UniProtKB/TrEMBL annotation:
It comes from the Eukaryota. It comes from Lottia gigantea (Giant owl limpet). This is V-type proton ATPase subunit F. One of its GO terms (cellular component) is proton-transporting V-type ATPase, V1 domain. Belongs to the V-ATPase F subunit family.
Length: 123
């Protein structure tokens, strides 16, 4: 993992199960900032909901993170915190996990985006 300081809003953060985080870290997104904070959280059966929420809030407040990827099953656990985040950056994207497929009806960010457009916009 690189220890250099990242440019503002250049990182992707991940909150996910072990397989999801491992895949993204192997793909090169792993980073540790100058305060030794990683840009990912591996959630397992011992991870508490408050811990997931605290990490999400810390990712939202960091100015070096542009996108937060979160397994949708974990996003459901902290839906209230995700719904409170209304800034465009960092963007929050809910992704499927190996255990749970993506369900667009549960994605509050997607529902919000759909509300911004009408069918007329796509003709």
């Amino acid at each position: 993992m690189a220890l250099h300081s990242a440019q503002k809003g250049r990182l992707i953060a991940v909150i996910g199960d072990e397989d999801t985080c491992t895949g993204f870290v192997l793909g090169g997104i792993g980073e540790i900032d100058k305060n030794r904070r990683p840009n990912f959280l591996v959630v397992d059966k011992n991870t508490s909901v408050p811990e997931i929420e605290d990490v999400f809030k810390s990712f939202v407040s960091r100015d070096d993170i542009a996108i937060i990827l979160i397994n949708q099953s974990f996003a459901e656990m902290i839906r209230h915190a995700i719904d409170k985040h209304t800034e465009p950056i960092p963007a929050v994207l809910e992704i499927p996990s190996k255990e749970a497929p993506y369900d667009a009806s549960k994605d509050s960010i997607l529902r919000r985006a759909k509300g911004m457009f009408s069918a007329e916009d796509f003709r």
